[in-house]
Amino acid sequence: MFNFSFDKRIIYIILGIMVLSMIIQYVSSPGMLFSLLISAPGVLIAITFHEFAHAFIADKLGDDTARREGRLSLNPLDHLDPIGTILLLFAGFGWGKPVHVNPRNYTRKMSMEKGEALVSIAGPVMNFLLAIIFAIIYYGIYKFAGIAFITSKMGKIILSLISSTVLINVGLGVFNLIPLPPLDGSKVVMPFLPYNAKQFFINNEQIFYIVFVVLWITGLTSYIITPGIQVVGSWISNLASAIWGL
Q: Are 175 and 127 in contact (CB under 8 A)?
């Protein structure tokens, strides 16, 4: 009974209004603006590698759609979605330009459904790997750099850039694992759903878009992902510090 047409442009209009509101807040606060500039490199890295991972795994499974569309690239301009990028900058979570795939081209060694799940989870996994790598670099600096560098202006900026990159990658990874369209989590959970639940999910995909928008507008999205970000972020921090014996 929920199977009805829903114009996805409405989502972008609503999110666009929210983004404009956040931009005004940042511009009016120099401190927040500096934080925005610090987070920009992390956003570019997180989105670029996230979408590249989708394209790379799809290509390895036998689908060359992403390759033909130029998405097997580490050029940020090939992967940035305007609203998703701005949201990641201002809100700490967002998305890149979707990677188009054709599951019918996947290797027959697995079902199309499992192939889609593998391609979908590749993005968040890449973000978590990047978060681990940058966390290791962060604690490595603390381990080997002198106190003079760490407390210097340049040192503080570098550490802030790295810390921001870790947090953004964790945020993007956790956010995209929410099992609602259009996020990656919706494809990841599909193979594990009972048949009836799976059909309901497929036939009423539009209603889940509305649920996603409602969660976003009401701020409930933060309540959903914040615990996940804290758990994953804490685990990565503990892992990275343990590697250096800190």
A: no
Where do runs of H (alpha helix) occur along the chain? 9-27, 30-60, 65-68, 82-91, 112-144, 147-150, 153-175, 185-188, 195-203, 205-218, 220-243
What are the residue boundaries of the structural domains of the chain, listed by start? 9-243
Q: What is the dihedral of CA 121, 220, 165, 35, to 10 degrees?
A: 160
Tens of pLDDT along the chain (246 residues)?
333 344 556 666 766 676 677 667 666 776 666 777 888 899 899 999 999 999 999 999 999 999 999 999 999 889 988 777 776 666 656 677 889 999 889 887 888 888 999 999 999 999 999 999 999 999 999 899 988 999 999 999 999 999 999 999 999 999 899 888 778 888 888 888 787 877 777 777 777 777 777 776 677 777 888 899 999 999 999 999 999 998
Residue with tokens 């511009």: 27
Which candidate in 51, 69, 116, 205 is catalytic?
Answer: 51
Q: How many CA atoms lie within 13 A of 55 on its CB side?
A: 24
Residue 99 has which token pair? 């990677």
> For residue 203, which phi and psi values (nearest 5 degrees)?
-70, -25
Euclidean distance between CA atoms 99 and 149, whole angstroms: 41
Amino acid at 159: L
Tokens of 7: 């114009």
User: Is 51 one of the catalytic residues?
Assistant: yes
